[in-house]
Each structure stands twice: as C-alpha cells, then as structure tokens.
Amino acid sequence: MALGIWHTRSTLRVESLLLRGPALIAGILLYPLALKLYDNGIAYVFCDFGTGACCFLATAGIAGLISRVAGLAKIVGLVGVYSYGLYLIHQPYVIWLGLRIRPQPISVFLFIFLITAAVLSAWGIFLEKTTNALVNNLLPVRKTARS
Description:
The chain is an all-alpha fold. About 80% of the residues lie in helices and about 0% in strands. The model has no long low-confidence stretch (mean pLDDT about 85).
C-alpha cells in the first residue's frame, strides 16, 4: 500500500526506479540478505516477505528492460497472455525431459531447453485459444436487459 501511495504522488519517479534497472540490481543484491533471515530464530518469519520483495523488484526490473526491446516485448507479452495454458501443461513434460537431458553438456542442455520452451509456449497458446473458443461457444455471454 505504501508503494501504491508513493506511486500516486510521484508516478514518474517510482516507475523509473522500478522499471529502469535499479529495482533489478536491488532485488539481486538484497536476495542473499533476505535468505540470511533464515539463520535467526526470530527473524525467519520475515524471510518469505524479504525473498518475495526481492523477487518482485527483480521481476519489475526485468520487465522494464524487456519493454525497451520491441520485438522481445511483443513475444514475451504474447506468451504472458497465454501463460496459464503453459503453466498447466509444462510440468509433466519438463520433469520427463529434465531427467533425460541432465547428463548433457550445458550448451546442449540450453539448446534443448530453448527449443522446448518455444514448443511448449506454442502448444500452450494453441491449447488456451482452443479452450477459450470452446467455452465461449458452450457458454455464450448473456446480454443484460437495458433499464
């Protein structure tokens, strides 16, 4: 809530901090410190908050950097729109494939990973579009009566 209030008062300043790199650097640098909260018997209750805040900062920073590259932003945005379908189908495939490519050298592993990510993204987009079309046909939107 404090971040939201700060954003309403100084929109440009908050967005420049969150989306232009400082948030990414802060999230990466503070993450190990947040993990140190596990060491203390009392402060460990704040570890989830600390790691979550650091992940938020890093994610916001990465999103800001991605948005500067138009082609990459378009691709990541498209995958993001259909990410729920990707989320639903990825786990069994990734576990199966991960167990089989573990002994590969890192270059081969990364190549297989990138191809797999692209194929699963395309499959997730197709699956979600098909599911949405089916649901829209089965459950049409009802028009409300005008008053």
